[in-house]
Amino acid sequence: MALGSVGILSPGEMGAAVGRSLLSKGYTVVAALNGRSERTRTLAARHGIGNVGSIDQLVRQCDVILSILAPSAASVAAQQVSAAMRATAARPLFVDCNSIAPQTARKAADSVSAAGGRFLDAAFIGPPPGGTVATRLYVAGPDATELRALETDHIEIRVLGADPGLASALRICYSAFGEGLLAVAAELLVAAERFGIEQSLRAELLENRGTAYEWFMRLLPSITARAQRSAREMEEVALAIEALGLTPKPFQGVADLYRWIAEAQSTRPGSSDFDSGSGRELIQRLGQV
Q1: pTM of full prediction above 0.70
Q2: Rg (Cα) of the chain, in Å, rounded?
Q3: Which CATH class is domain 170-287?
Q4: Which of 31, 43, 72, 258 is deepest in the core (most CB within 10 A)?
């Protein structure tokens, strides 16, 4: 099946950048923006992504739909697209690129398959496409090699196998390393701030764990903007880990920590300060919450 038109559900920061990269290769790229936020509409317009209005129209007009959403919206999106397939009799290839547990991906696959559609499990790793570092899109499922047609100068597509869930498994394990370690580091640094031994701990970390400490401090200021999303992502990690017979508790705790950071940001007077400054300044602000 030739892939000429691509639907982006939905053009947030990652989705809009993916759309722009595909436009540069000559694809028609559209989104269903009915009910979407002003920010999403602005991002779509800025990157040249067309608006077809409804999900029904997206299903009618596209050869492939890339679902690129917050983890909490992934299952609903798959159900909406499945319903649109039934209503329109159109059958675009549906590619779930969300950070979800393998079992969540397989439920989405069942929904799309029941509607007569085709499903691929996928996972983006890396920054939004367009920079100097290539963004990798891992994909799994029957006919996964078909998606290689969407490779661009900024998107590299790697096929994992025929089993839907493999790409989701890779994504959540990768995310748990980054988001999980960063959350644990943040909590320990806040604890040191409240104990009153932050300077001593920082000196020891710089002397003995300098590279890791500098990495944590460089990334810490970015965690507040995505705290709610990270909390939901860690819940998906916990679901996946528990299904393997392992304990989900560390990742449930990390999800709790991200929810605490999100709540601290939203309730503290002058909470916009959380979005700026250095890692040390963020820890000091969280230490005062």
Answers
A1: yes
A2: 20
A3: mainly alpha
A4: 31
The 10 Å Cβ neighbour count of residue 57 is 18
Question: Count of alpha carbons within 13 Å of 178, Cβ hemisphere only?
Answer: 14
By CB atoms closer than 10 A (0-12, 13-18, 19+), residue 103 is: middle
Place of tokens 């040191």: 192
Residue 14 CB partners (closer than 8 Å, separation 6+): 68, 124, 128
CATH (one of 3.90.226.10, 3.40.50.720, 3.90.180.10, 3.30.1330.50) for 5-163: 3.40.50.720
Cβ atoms of residues 6 and 62 within 8 Å: yes
* Distance separating alpha carbons of residues 74 and 241, to the nearest angstrom: 19
Summarize pLDDT for 139-181 with one digit per residue, the tens: 999 989 999 999 999 999 999 999 999 999 999 999 999 999 9
